[in-house]
Amino acid sequence: MAAITHTLDKHIAKAVLMCAVTSARTLTTAELSQGLKLDINTVLPSAKSAVEGLCGQLVAIDQDSGLIDLIHPTVREFLVFEAAGEFAASTSLAPERIVLICLQLLCSSGMRHPRNRRLLSQARPPASPFLDYALTRFSEHIASASSENEKLLAAIDPFLRTNMLSWIERLAVEGNLHPVMRASKNLKSYLDRRGKYQSPLNNQDRTILVLGAGPGIGRCVASLFASKRYKNVVLIARRAANLLVEKKAVETIVGHGRVNVRTYAVDTTRTEELFKALDDADAAFGKPEVVFYNAARVRPSTFFAHPVEDIEYDLKITVSALYTVSQRYMPHLVSLAKMNKTAAHHRGSTTTSESEAARPALIVTSSALPHQPIPQLFSLSLAKAAQRNLVQSLSLAYASEGVRVGVVTVAGPVSAEDEERSPRNIALKSWDWFDGDSNDNGGGGEREPCFEVVI
């Protein structure tokens, strides 16, 4: 190997040896060629000639099958030790490189099924020679990759969010679901190890989602939570013009450059439009650690003159939309809580530190209407009663999992002049409820948070 002096030749030789040492099975020349193209952006006119010319003393190609393998097991032992010098294959970094090659293919548009008949009828480009390896073996390299590097986790995330179901479907069509089971175990192992070195989130990644943003409670909660913990804020409301005002207000209160704010003008009852906005927000900031649900419609309703369609709309805003948002994010919130417990376990403690631990939460604003309905607001009263029931059920189901779920009950009119029920004080009380016993909740302690704070 010492005879290789040309820079590009060295680059190719190192990549070939890395693949030969690290691959979970022997590769064909076509697979190696495609893998090198994705890894080092180099196209080999002839993989066979490159392997034999640069690595012929260590790597051999079977003339019948075209499979590439080390000439002897002792070669592997040599290449994983420092004695191999610059050609050594790092046992922690090499698996990560293989995974990143695989994930490039698994995250590609070619993995996705056509969404309409026109695309379905079009000829699809031929599959990459390396795709079969990526489909079946990528997770084996995750199991042995270093848990300290951010690059791998960042590459896994888009795969899980976009093409994971297409990957499972492809394997199911082939009648081979063993890679799915292996991937589940390997991903869990990787995340468990990662919990030893890195908290689930850092301050730059944390996001709060506020649905029902406005100049009162929504603005004060977004600003206070951002000033204390959240670098990223997502604001959702129906009117775009109002959101521009809210964005500027939050940035001014928290401090320009100290918070990233994205706004989306969308009606929460329009699930498809809402999820499109949330998809964009998740892609920009990552999924939220806290979901603050403040969406509601306050208007008079007279018995038997009030259209049933308006009752249904109030229920959609207050209950159905909250349900769909919870359905979308609760699995993520539970996973954050589990990561806290894993990190605490590896540190030999029942809690993670307050600054590091995630605090997954679903917080919903409520009122006295569930307990004291007002006939002139009967539509909102019944919607709020149903909402409280939903949130209480979610709390019973998920508080024990480590997710803070509860209502902030404002038992009277909200007014900036009211010391107790001003938006600012409501935000402070919301933070106190959210922040209280955070270590017990997120780290796996015995106490569970109370379901409600009454203001």
TrEMBL record:
<protein>
    <submittedName>
        <fullName>NAD(P)-binding protein</fullName>
    </submittedName>
</protein>
<keyword id="KW-0560">Oxidoreductase</keyword>
<dbReference type="InterPro" id="IPR002347">
    <property type="entry name" value="SDR_fam"/>
</dbReference>
<dbReference type="InterPro" id="IPR054471">
    <property type="entry name" value="GPIID_WHD"/>
</dbReference>
<feature type="domain" description="GPI inositol-deacylase winged helix">
    <location>
        <begin position="8"/>
        <end position="88"/>
    </location>
</feature>
<dbReference type="GO" id="GO:0016491">
    <property type="term" value="F:oxidoreductase activity"/>
</dbReference>
<dbReference type="InterPro" id="IPR036291">
    <property type="entry name" value="NAD(P)-bd_dom_sf"/>
</dbReference>
<dbReference type="Pfam" id="PF22939">
    <property type="entry name" value="WHD_GPIID"/>
</dbReference>
<dbReference type="Pfam" id="PF00106">
    <property type="entry name" value="adh_short"/>
</dbReference>
<comment type="similarity">
    <text>Belongs to the short-chain dehydrogenases/reductases (SDR) family.</text>
</comment>
